[in-house]
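=== Structure Prediction Worksheet ===
Name of assembly: unnamed complex
Input type: mixed (protein and possibly other molecules)
Chain count: two
Listed entries:
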Amino acid sequence: MSEHSPSEHAPSEHAMAEHDLASRLSAFAPPVVPPDLPVSDVSYVVEDTAIGRMLLARAGSGALIASAFVSGPDAEDAWLHRLARQVSPRVLRQPRALDAARRELDAYLRGELRAFGLQADLVLATPFQRIVLGHLAGAVGYGKRTTYGALARDIERPSAARAVGAALGANPLCVVLPCHRVVATSGALTGYAGGLAAKEFLLALETRTFAVARQPLAGAQRWPRLEPAENAAAPPRDEDVE
Amino acid sequence: MTLPPFQHLVDACWRDVARLAQALAGPVDGDDVAQQAWTQALAAYPRLRSASNLRGWLLTITSRCAMDVHRSRGRRAVPAEDIAVVGDVHARALVAGPEKDRPDESLWSHVAGLPDRQRHAVVLKYVADLDHPTIARALGTTPAMSRRLVSDALATLRLTTSRNVI
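=== Predicted Assembly ===
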């Protein structure tokens, strides 16, 4: 740099000029747009529902892998890290990839849908949790209740009521797999990932809907299945039909 | 070692990536470069060995994508009436775009005229705020050479900008 310094004072002038250049370069602030990334290994959305803030996540196959209560940013972060560790680090917030799941959940929470039609995957569950949770949907229908002990007998492990309770407590697909229908033998609600108020809401909703509408609701069949993204022959969505 | 969810990188760095892409490739190609950089990063992410400098990793990918766009444009034929304007077209393409998006146009037109490696080095240093080891990795050179490229670029800019003022 000294070749450009004709006098003794020049270096500091040069230093000032360079500092000025550096700050002008740093000030570069063009209008920018966020990237639009393709659906990858894990897509998720976090939204407020009637029973609390929930995270929904689907795998690249299109199957729902998580439906969980996230009370705050820490719980949300913990879930995202769990998905990154156990499924794939390619975890992206892509609300539209979960449109079908959100529609089903909304319809269910309004009492318009009684059985979820979306494809689910228990990739986040342990083998024992898979046995218990896999059994759950068939064992106890909409508007019904069962107990931890009865479920333990159903899977031929009559002494494992507590283990069954723990497996249900770890349910990665809350609401979709109805662990809220399982209560203590005494009838007490015991506990729920989304809080007892949420469990109470779900049970009251199902009882009410079950009592009011004995005949199957037309709405139950209207919701499209959640199909893999790459499946070109996906059934038409509601908005396509109308 | 566990990698954080990719969305955390997007949330933390998307503005930096977009800004760097525009500084290197101009407003016309900048969005494409940023988009391409994110797509490449997402594809490579699970194979990444270390989560220690994720911002540097993303900006390095962005710099390489900008270099690719620049090279492919260099190879593409530019129709021109007068052969003398061809070199000029090249420089102007880098800073083309609506006037309001370029608050410091005189400076950026001089940046566009710098030799490629100097231009990348000075932009990575001051727009992306990267350290010399990371700049060196992005450019495939040594930290000492990165310092040299940045100081040469600044010297040229100092001369060309002051000449314009006078």
